[in-house]
Amino acid sequence: MAYTLLLGRFVIRYPDLPNQGPEPDGDTITFNPDDQDVIKGLPRSSRPPKFSGRGNIGIRLEAIDALETHFPKGPTWHQEKQGGEKARDELLHRLGFRDVVFRNHKILSASHDELPGYVLANSIDPNGRVIGFIFAGGTALDDAEVAPPLGAHGDSVTLDGELADRSVNSGLLAEGLVYPAFYGTLPPPLRTHLAAQSRAARQSNLGLWPRSTADPNGPARGVTKETIEDLVIWPKLFRRAVAYFNEGNTNFDGFKAWLRKQARGGDDDEILILEEEGDGEGSGGRLANLHDVVAASGTSLQLQVWPDAIVIEPKRGES
């Protein structure tokens, strides 16, 4: 499983313009690469990589989906603040940032404004962000005295389960701080490995899992536009629900029909439901759409398959 090594620095604050700086969350972080040309050569389905005037680019962490801290679709929405902020804070901590103080979603102060790190990337998403696994520090697997460096900026690196376990992505999954979100571009062996981590966290009631709802353990009830922001549900389902609410809908009686109508726009995601949770090495599974695994009526909402058993087919404008 070849990934492209990107060297650079993770950036969380602009000291000259702190009110205009990055807004990290539990699955995205700003990165300043050593060179842009390598990123411009990564595979993409639509738009090119989106660099800022400072040469920074967003990194969307592969295989995970954190609770939304600020989702600006129509009005700005959020999910349960405790879970979203915990994932965000742990991501920053694992990259080496300490004493981070937030003002709204910007960083007021921290031990560092930026720190060195690296990314193992495999593509550009439809929003112009790099999709990849992120790692703190330099390029050494362990202490530089006992492990060789991964390579130079732009090198091809084989990413297996052992190396993935050193990533921030894996750490957040293993602690149950994020939901899994597996796209078809993630190699099946890695998907199987990471799904097992997420299931272990769920079965051990770690992180957000004791508060998770609208899942195979049971529906979320009493879900309205006013209450959905307090819930812990799969973020992809949350994003679809708030798009539905933004169109003036007040209950879920028409939600599945609405999803079907959104198929061409991508909101009724094409998915592969794996025959066995986390399986992905073979061809087992059945094709479906998101509406096929959702139960919704009145103020009740449920995802009927665990997210680690779903493989999402990427589309334009994916979210």
Automatic annotation (TrEMBL):
Lineage, top-rank taxon, reads: Eukaryota
Source organism: Microdochium bolleyi
Q: Which residues form the TNase-like domain?
A: 25-211
What is this protein's name?
Answer: Probable endonuclease LCL3
Q: Gene3D superfamilies annotated for this entry?
A: 2.40.50.90
Q: Where is the signal peptide?
A: none
